[in-house]
Please model this.
Amino acid sequence: MSKIITFGEIMMRLQPEGFKRFFQAEKYEICFGGGEANVAASLAGFGADAAFLTKLPENELGGACLSDLKKRGIETRFILRGGERLGLYFCEKGASQRPSRIIYDRKNSSINEIDADEIDAEKLFCGAEWFHFSGITAALSDRVLNVLKFLLKEAKKRGVIISCDLNYRKKLWSIARAGEVMAELTGLSDVLISNEEECKDVFGLTACGADIKGGVVGADSYAALSEVVMKKFENLRAAAFTLRGSVSASVNRWGGILTVRKGGADGLFGGFEPKENEKFGGGRLKDAGGSELKSVEKTRGECFGNAGGSELKNTEPNAYCTSNGYAEYEKLKNAAEFNCFRSKEYTVNIVDRVGAGDSFTAGLIYSALNKKSPEYAVEFAAAASCLKHTVEGDFNIASVEEVETLMNGDGSGRVRR
Model:
């Protein structure tokens, strides 16, 4: 029995040595990765019981991938074999002002030949408490999407908590199609994870004042946005955003926020007050006071006020607005139903940023299943994903002790003996 089930595609990653560009490469380093597999690997590293469901080809590359998953402590007995090939992706690591580049070669990969009748839902979900998927999986093909919907139905039937990472990839589908499908799937989820770009891409919602290219991603504005998303999807019990302020390809500011619905998050996280050993420095954003929020005229549309209910001026960034400039004004009379929590912000010198969002998700899931408070959860998730930036490859390799050491304030990087 596995408490956590993740479903998606895993690929082989090929990367030039060091920071060489594709044109310079004479040899490639190889590892494996994919959004939901990355989540399972992080959870297994925390000692959690995590299983990964996918389909791999019945050849040596599929076997190598399977062996690597087993080595990470991931339950692999539900992985199906067959299909044409293992998907590939090529990663050129960026540095300083040169961004990383990724090229996908995943057409006709084995997961696109998966069928629901190959899956024994009774065995898969026996003892399961959590099911996780991402928008990448939903975008792969109609066939994979149908299997995903089948799994969501089976999870809902059994009362399994469902988390969804929006994870929009424009090379896989259009914004219109993504918006249509992900609205349906988000409507079946309990927890939504996104970042500073994906809500804009998928739902046309963005945080006013955010300047992603300029590295400006204010926690207050995304807290307000998270509340709007949770009003849009009343089934959501919690929503989380990673916040990446890109100084360059080598240096980022990193953190996160977690918004929980009062009452609706009962049983999802522990009590709101941190335990004595949960000493961390982010804290709770100003609670929504329940007062009616006023619309503010903007050059790109009407905006919401911040979580405290105060009116926002034209120059203030702490607001929500629609990305296309049309007003979606709503008086958040019930804003008091939410609590927003933010992590401390880290300045990260990046070794490898791929999989950072997945390690954030894993941190949230681990915290929830261990009944940690929302304060702990967002700090643990942010610290875990901060450490992932220092690890080569898609999978995070960090213990609970290492994560808690960082979240409790020791980020010195001094040698431990």
